[in-house]
From TrEMBL:
Entries under PANTHER family matching the protein: RIBONUCLEASE P PROTEIN SUBUNIT P40
Molecular function terms, GO-annotated: ribonuclease MRP activity; ribonuclease P activity
Protein's name according to its UniProt entry: Uncharacterized protein
Gene: 5580052
Recorded GO CC terms: multimeric ribonuclease P complex; ribonuclease MRP complex
BP GO annotations: endonucleolytic cleavage in ITS1 to separate SSU-rRNA from 5.8S rRNA and LSU-rRNA from tricistronic rRNA transcript (SSU-rRNA, 5.8S rRNA, LSU-rRNA); tRNA 5'-leader removal
A Pfam entry, by short name: Ribonuc_P_40
Length: 376
């Protein structure tokens, strides 16, 4: 067929997880929002949208003041199975790593998540030459073209034969070397001790290895920050229910998230009388401006939670704002996504979420992931 009717093909579906509820802004314990943040290990960008604020609160501006990560080039995965590395960074603190600029559908990919799980997402040829046990990828069962190997580094015993076998396999030429984005969250200091181990200790460890391995290089990857402001807006009112006892109608969760995304992208939200103008249903409030702040880099769940906590503190102080929103985007080619679930790659690799909260403590959790269904 020379001119297939591609418009007849349905768009790839997504799985949307939506939660609403109410939390105490001042409490720091576990709640549904923080629980969702903690199960998403790899985060590429964070965006906050702050309607009707005169300036970005200082606690939000400084929430990621020390969020630079490191790129370790040409590292052998055998390095991750060293006794010193396991004792110093796997069993102490939280170590995160994901392969840099690899494609999940065609390349060998690597990830490490706390408490020390090494995940290898391998092509068939690499897996068959490696010599470690694994299983066929959930999304490649028909062709058996991709395999997943999981190794628990935390429980490896240096004196065991299995430990030696894992090290030998990870050092084989068939696996090669990887460029890894790495970040390490140090453990909390003991009670009464104020000083804390510096997160850059992980860079020092690899830099010391580079002195004996000329191929290995360590680079600092600074976090990219961008801010902008939108003026003269009519923003939707955030309400947990889409209607109330007074007969007022509120926009849906999808419309609210869509509007927040338009502000983040500096889209024109003015209403015009033509067919493709954007509008939303429900109550709205007129505000003077909205501040938007973007971070791009490699962020751990602890860093994302720090931004979320700062937003909650800002809401507690600036109780006149209609709401504040936060959007987090994961890596589309990371081997795993939410809750250690294998990431999808045939039609999409979505793993992102948005959080909207108001001064009353009402929250909306809006999570989008791939549908995890093979295309027919």
């Amino acid at each position: 067929m020379l001119c297939p009717e591609v418009w007849r093909f349905p768009a790839p579906s997504h799985e949307i997880v939506q939660k609403t509820g109410n939390v105490d802004l001042r409490l720091t314990g576990r709640d549904p929002v923080r629980s969702g943040i903690r199960v998403h290990p790899f985060n590429q960008s964070i965006t906050i949208v702050l309607p009707d604020v005169s300036s970005i609160p200082i606690e939000l501006e400084t929430a990621l003041a020390d969020s630079d990560h490191y790129l370790v080039r040409n590292v052998s995965l055998q390095t991750l199975a060293n006794r010193a590395f396991i004792e110093g960074f796997i069993k102490q603190g939280k170590f995160y790593a994901v392969s840099f600029r690899t494609r999940l559908d065609t390349d060998d990919c690597v990830a490490v998540v706390p408490p020390g799980t090494l995940v290898l997402h391998l092509n068939k040829e690499t897996f068959q030459s490696l010599g470690l046990e694994g299983q066929v990828s959930e999304f490649a069962r028909k062709r058996n073209s991709k395999y997943v190997v999981r190794i628990d580094l935390h429980t490896l015993q240096p004196e065991s034969k299995f430990f030696k076998r894992v090290r030998d396999c990870l050092g084989r030429d068939c696996l090669g070397r990887f460029d890894l984005q790495v970040a390490w969250t140090p453990p909390e200091p003991p009670a009464g001790v104020r000083s804390r181990v510096c997160p850059s200790s992980i860079a020092k460890y690899f830099a010391d290895l580079a002195s004996t391995d000329q191929n290995l290089k360590v680079e600092l990857m600074p976090t990219m920050i961008k801010t902008h402001q939108e003026y003269g807006l009519n923003v939707p009112v955030f309400n947990i229910s889409e209607d109330d006892d007074n007969g007022k109608e509120y926009c849906s969760a999808g419309e609210l998230i869509e509007y927040m995304g338009m502000l983040a992208l500096s889209c024109n939200t003015e209403e015009e009388e033509y067919l493709n103008s954007y509008d939303f249903c429900g109550e709205r409030v007129e505000i003077g401006n909205a501040k938007v702040m973007h971070w791009n880099g490699f962020f751990t769940p602890e860093q994302v939670e720090a931004v979320h906590n700062a937003m909650r503190r800002a809401l507690d102080v600036q109780d006149y704002v209609p709401w504040m929103g936060m959007y987090v985007q994961g890596f589309s080619d990371s081997p795993i996504g939410f809750r250690m679930r294998e990431n999808y790659f045939h039609t999409d690799g979505e793993n992102c979420y948005a959080i909207v909260m108001n001064p009353k403590g009402d929250f909306l959790w809006y999570q989008v992931v791939g549908n995890n269904k093979m295309p027919k």
